[in-house]
Batch of 4 targets.
Target 1
Amino acid sequence: MSDKEKQPVVMVIDDTPEHLKLLSGLLAKCKYEVITFERGDLALKEAEKSPPNIVLLDIKMPIMDGFEVCERFIATPNLMDIPIIFISDIYETLDKVRAFQVGGADYITKPFKFEELKARIGTHLKIRMQQKELAKYSRHLEEMVQAQVQEITKSQTATISALAKLAESRDDDTGRHIERVTLYSEMLAKTLAVSSLYRKEITPTFIEELYFACPLHDIGKIAIPDNILLKPDKLTEEEFEVMKSHTTIGAKNLASVLTKYPKNAFIRAGLSIARSHHEWWDGTGYPDGSKREDISLYARIMTVADVYEALRSNKCYRKAVSHKEACETIIDAAGSQFDPYVIEAFEQLSEQFERVSNEKADEYNG
C-alpha cells in the first residue's frame, strides 16, 4: 500500500477516558487509524517510534500538560512537522495564544461539533501532504540544479585546463608543472585553513577556487616571443620587461572573460593569481609593486608554490636545485618575498613538498 493509500494515523492525547473513547469512535468512522493515550509522556515515546500524521491534544493533563507535550513534539526532529490541534475546554484568550506560540497548528474549544473537527483534521492533513510533496519536489529540483552546476563546473575546468596547457606547452615539455604547482598550492591552503591567521578566510570554497585557478597563473606567457621565453642565457633589461608583461597580459585576457561571466569564481581567482603571483610581500615585486595584504591571498599562496616548483625544475638557462636548497632559499625570503604566515605552513609541509616533487618528477628533474 502506498503512502497515499494508507489510512492517516490520528494520535489522540487526553487524560479523560470518555473523551478518548468518543473521539476514537467518531474518527474510526472517517476511516482514520486512531491511537489514544491518557499521558503525554507515553504518547511521545510511541510517536518517536512510529510518528502519527496528526495529533489531537488536550491541555490540562497530569505529569506533562498539553503545552509541554507540544513543545516536546516540536523539539524532536522527526516529529516537529506533525500538525497538532489543541482540543480543550479552556476559553481564555491567553491560553489559546500560548497554544499557537508553542507550535500548535489549530485550537478547538470543547464541546466541539464533530463536523468542524473533521473538516479541520482534513484540512491540516491536506496541507501536510502538500508540504511533503513540495519538499520532495524541492529536493528533486535541488538535485537537478546541483547536477547541472557540476556539469557546468566540469566544462569550465576543462576549458581552464586547456588554456593552461596551451600556455605551458611554450616552455615546458612535460606537462607536469601545472599538476605539481597546483598540488603545492592546495597543500599550503589546507594547512593554513587549520591553524593560521587566515583560517576564517580559507574556506573549502576558497581552496576549490585556488585549486582550479592555479593553472592559469602563466596564461600570459602565450604572448611572449620564443626568443625571450626560451632564451638559454640571462635576459637583458629590455627582454625582462617583456617577460614581466606575461602577468598583465594574462590578467587582461582573463578580465575580458570575467566581463562576460562575472559570476565565474575560478576566472576571478585566476585573474588575481595571473596578475600578482610575482608580487613580493615587501612591495618590490611586479607588475604593481603591491605589498603585504594588498596582494590577494590566492597569489601569496601561489607564489610560494611557484617558486619552489621553479627552483626544483630544470630550465633552459639553469639546472634544478635540491629540495634542501630550495627550502633554504624560500624560508630565507620570508617577510621579504613571501608572506611569513604562508612560509610557516611551507615549513610544516617541507617533507610533503619533496615527496610530491619526487613522485611527480619530470625525467630530467633533480
Note: Residues 9-140 form a domain with the Rossmann fold fold (CATH 3.40.50.2300).
Target 2
Amino acid sequence: MGKDVDIRGRGVSACCAAHLLAQQGFSVCLEQASRSGPARLLLSGQTQLLFREIFGDPQLFEAAPRIRCRVVAWGAEAPPVELPHSGVVVSEQELLDHLWQKIEIPGDVSLQRETTDAGWTILSAALPSQAWESRAFGDRKACTRAVRLVAQARHDCCWIESLPDGWLFLLPYSEGRALLISTGYSPASLIEQSRLIAAQITELEAAGEPAIQFPAYPQTLCELSGMRWLACGSAAMRFDPLCGEGAGHAVREGLLAAAVIRGAARGYSSDTLLAHYNQRLMQGFLRHLQVCLPFYQSGGQSDFWQAEASALQTGIRWMEARLEGETPPLYRLSGYQLEPIAGN
C-alpha cells in the first residue's frame, strides 16, 4: 500500500489529518477548496486539549479571550439563567494559519494524479464540481455580523436567546466587540424581538468583519467513505452552531480519517476500517441531532420552531435506521492509531 494522500480542503479537519499523516511519513498533497462558516469559533476545554495534544503546543490558546459563563434565556418569557462555561474565542482563519505553519508539506497543489490502489483521498471541503448525495434536517440559515457592546457588557460571557422566529447568539471576542449569530426565517428582524441580547448591543457595525451567511441546519453525506476515500469536516457533515461545536467534531473526524489510512498501511482490512469510520461518524451525528431536538421543541411555538423540530425528528429516525443492526466496533483508538479489539 502506497503512502500518497490527497487532501481537498484546508479547514480544521484537513489540517489535523495532514499533520498526523505527515508525522508518519505519508506524502500529503493539498488542494484548496471554498468553505463558509462563522469567522470566530468558541472552543470548549476538551477541544482545546485535543488541539494542544495533536499539534504538541501546550501554549496554544493561552492568549485567547476566555468565556467563563453563558447567559441563556430559552423559551417564551423565560428568565435569563447564568451557567458556568470554560471556552476560548479564536479567529478560525488565524488559528488555521498558525497550525498550517507547523506542517511540513508542499504548498497548494492542483491535484492531477488519479486516486489508485497506491493512494487515498480525504475530502474535507465540498468541491463545486462534485455532486454528492446528502440529507439535510432543517431549513434554517445563520447570519453573522460584528457588533459593538454597551460599556457595561461582560467580556467573559456569551448570551443565547430564543425568540418567536429564531434565536440569537452573542459572542464577545475583543474589548467592546462581539460576533452576533442570528438564525431564523428573518434574521434581520430578530434583534427587534430580543429582550436579553439587544440590551448588550450598542450598534451593529457597518465596517469591520464582513457579514457571513451559512447553513445552520444539520446535514450529512449519505456515503461518508468509499474505495480509498473518506469525507470529513464540512464535506462530510455540518452541525447546528447552537449545539454542535463543529470545530470539535472536525478535529475528531480528521484524527479518525488519518487513523484509518494509517491502519490500512499497516495491513488492516480497508473494508472493516471504513465500516468503523462510517459507524463512528454516524453515531456522533445522531447524538448531535438528539441534543438539538429538545432546544427546538422548547424554543417557541411558531412555525419556525415546529418545522425545525419536525426536521430533527426525521433526521433522528433516518440515522437510527442507518445504524440499526450495526455490529460492535472492530477497532479502538490507541493514541492516534486504530488497534483491533481482541476477540473480534
Note: The first strand starts at residue 4 and ends at 8.
Target 3
Amino acid sequence: MKYNLLIGGQAGQGVNSISEIFTKVLINYGYYIFNYKDYPSLIRGGHNFNIVSFSDKPLASFESKFDGIIAVDNLTIKLHEKNLKKTGFILNSEKFQDLGKDINIALAGALLNTFGIDKKNVLKVIKNKFKTKECINIGEKGFDSEVTKYNLNKLNNKISLMSGSEGVAIGALNSDLNLYVAYPMTPATGVMNELAKIQNTKRDLLVFQAENEIAAVNASLGGSFAGANSMVGTSGGGFDLMSEGLSLQGMSEIPLVVYLASRAGPATGVPTYTSQADLNVALRAGHGEFPRIVVAPGDAYESILLTNQAIYLSNKYNILSIIFSDKHLAESQFSFSENIPKFLKIVKNRKIPFINKEVIKATSYEHDKFGNTIEDPKTTIEGHDRRLKKYAELQKVCEEFEMVKIYGKKNSKNLIIAWGSTKGAIIDAIEDLDCKFLQVLYIKPLSKKIKKEMQNAKNIILVEGNSTGQLGRLLREKTGILIPKENRILKYDARPFVCNELKEEIQRRLK
C-alpha cells in the first residue's frame, strides 16, 4: 500500500506542523515516509505545501496524483484539486475557522483519525510538540470531527526519519566536528541550524555566522590550521565567493571541508527551489590545479556516511572535500531502517600549532618542504607533482568505500546513470521496469566500475536536474562514451523529479 497526500496553506499557517505531527505518528506506527516541502521566497502568505508519501515498504519520492488534500486555506484546493484521485478525500479548515492560528492542530488530528490512528497516540505527539492543554484539546476536537476512512495497522518496523541537512549534521558531529562556519543562504542554512542547536552542550563545537562567505571560508581554513575539525557551508552564490579560499587550500594544503547545497541559478535564481546545476563549479572552482574530492549523497542516510568520509579524506590527505547537496535533498525528509555503521576516526596528518613544538608555516605561495617561498622552475614542478600525486592515492582508498551503487535488474542492458537527489524518484520509478540504475556517489574521483558498466550496456539513459547534463559531460571526458541527446532526461524547472512522471520518460527510452 502507498498513499500520497498534499498538505497546503499560506506561509505562517502551520503547514509544516501538520506534516510533523502526522509523520511522527506514522513513524511510531512503523511506516516508511517521504516528505517533500515546496515554498516560495516569502516569510508570510503565498502558497506553501508539503507532499507526504507513506507506505509499508521503503519509498523515497512522491507522485503527482493525491489520495488526499489537507487544506488550511481555499487556495490549496483551487490549485491542487485537479490532481486529486477519484477516490481521494479533502479535509478543509472551514469547520475550524474559530480556532484562528490553531487550525493546523485540529487538521492534524482530523487527518490522523481519517487513517484510523489511535487517539492516545495522536494526543501524545501533540502534547510533546505544543506542551499546552489547550493545544491538546484542539487536537482532540479535530480528531473527533472526522470519521475513519482507512485503518492502518501498527507495524514492527523501526524507522528513522530525517532530512538531508540533519544527515550531514549527524555525519559531521560523529566526525568530531569542532568548528562550523557559514553565512546563511538557502538551502544550506539547515545544517548550520542543526549544529547550532547543540553547540552549547558538552560537545566541543563552535558554530559561527561570519559576515560573508569570503570570511567564512577563510575562518574555516584558520580553524583547521590551528587543529580544529573544521567545515564551512554555503549555496551556489556563496560558493562562487569562496573560490579564492579553495585555491588557498590547494596551495597551503590545510584540510578544508565544504558543504555545498545547490539551488537554481544563475545569480539569485529561484532561491527556495532545487537544482543540480552547480556540479561543474564544484568540480573546477578555484584557479590553478589542485586535488579535491566531490561526494554526492542521494538521501539522508547517505548524507551521514559521505560526510564522515569527506572529513576523513580531507584530513588524511590534506585536501579539499566537497559534499554536494541541493534543496530537494537538504530539506526533504527521508525514512530508513538501516543501522548507521561505525564511523571513520578522523586523524590529523599534518603538524599542528601549539602541539608540535616548532614553527609551522602554511602559505599561499609556491614553497619548498619547509614552507619557504620559492620561484625556481624545478621546485615549482616538484610542488605541483607532489600535490597532484594525491589523486592516485585517493583513487585507491576511495575504491574501498562504496563509490557507486546498483539498483534494479542487475543483468539488464538498459542502464540509468544519475547522482544525488534524483536517486529516490529513479528507484521508485524503475520498480517493475527492465533496467538497472547506477548511482554515482563519488563524482571526483570516479569509480573505475562506471566505465565497465557503460561498456556492457546497450542502452544508457542519463537523469539529471540541470539543462546540460553535467555528469554526462564528465563521463564522456573520463570514459569516451557519449550518451545520446535523446537519452538524456534533464529537468531544470527548479522542481525535483516526480516518480510516476519520470517512469513515463524512462519507458519511452527503453529498448
Note: The longest strand covers residues 45-55.
Target 4
Amino acid sequence: MLASLRSVLRFRHPRFRSSDRRLARCASLGDLQLLARQKLPRGVFDYIDGGAEGERSLSRNQDGFDRILFRPRVLRSVGEVDTSTTLLGRPLALPLVLAPTGFTRIAHPLGELAVARAAERAEIPYTLSTLATRSIEEVALVSQGDKWFQAYVWRDRAVVREMLDRAAAAGYAALVITVDTPVLGRRERDVRRGFTLPPQVGVGTVLDGIVHPSWTYRFLTSDPIRFANVKQAGLDGESPVSLADYINTQFDPKLSWHDLEWFRGVWPGPIVLKGIQSVEDAVIAAETGIEAVALSNHGGRQLDSSPAPIDLVGPVAQALQGRSEIICDGGIRRGSDIVKAVALGATACMAGRAYLYGLAAGGERGVDFVLQLLRADVRRTMALIGVSSIEQVTEELVGTVAS
C-alpha cells in the first residue's frame, strides 16, 4: 500500500507568502479580477474596473474577441514555439505592451515601479502615464527595460515639453500621444460612489477602509499619492487636486492633426497615436508619418458605444498596408486574444486592466503572474493552431465571427 501511495502522491512546494498562495489558486485573469475586487475598497476597484456611462463599449471590447474563431492546422511540428516579435524596430519577447494607467498606486503602494520591473523581466515595453504616481526618473532608476512615455495634448505646452524632455533624457524609447480625450468621459461608477482622485475621505470611505484593512494600512503608511510627473501648473502634489477638474481645464477641444507637428519637433523618437477609432483616422495618421497607431477606445472609459478595437484591426491593416504598425488596445484577458489580434493584422496588443488586477491581487508578484500567464497562453494557443513563430500567425488561422 505504501509503495502504491508513493507512486501517485506528489507534495506541493510550500508557499510561505499569503500572496503566493492566493495567486496559485488563480487559473485566469478572471480569477485575478475577483481577487482584486475582494482586496480593494469598492470605489478603488470600480475606478480600475469601470467604464463610461452604460459600459457597453467596455463589454464589447471583450466580446469582440469571443466572437472570433480559430481555424487550427494540425501536424505542423510545433515542438519549439517562439513568441518573440519586433515593434518600432525593437525586440519583444511577446506581442504585448503594458498600457499607461493613471494613479497606479491606488492598486498597490509600489505602483508603477512594480509594473516597470515586471515588464523588464518579461522583456516587453512598459508605458508610463502622464498621470502616474511615480515620476519619469523614479521609473528609469528601477528599470533598464524598454520604456515608453504617454502624453496628453494639454493647453499648457510648456508643461508637456518639460515632461517630454525629461523622458527623452531618461531613455524612454517611444512617445504615446493619447488623442481620444478632448474632454473626460463620464464614468458613472465613480459618480455613484463619489470617487475622486486623490481620494477624498468621507463616511463611506471610512467604512470601506475598515472592511479592507490591509489596503487601508498600506495606503495610510505610504507616501501620499501625487501627480508625480507634473512639476508645473500647481500640480506638484503639495495639495490635493481633482483629476476631473484639472483635465477639463487642460485638454484642448480645438486639437487638430496640425498639432502633431509640434510633437514631432520636440520628440526625437517614434510616436504612437493612441485612441484611433476609425479606418479613416488610421489612414491620416499613416500619411503623416506616425510610426504606429493604437486602436483604442480608452478601455471603454471615454465614449460609450465606440467600436471595439479588435473589430478595427482587420480593416485598418488592409487600409494601411504596412505604412504604420498597429497596436490593438482593449479587452485583452487571455493570450488567445493576443494571437487573434496578431492574426488579423496587429503587430502587438496593449493591456492595462490586466496587470492592475495582478498588482492589486499580489503586488509585484501579481504582475509577474499576469505576464507569465499571458505568455504561456500565447505559446499554447500558437501550438494548438499549428504555428511555431509569430510570423506564421496570419489571417488564414482565424475564422468568421460566430453568430
Note: The chain has one domain: 27-68+87-374.
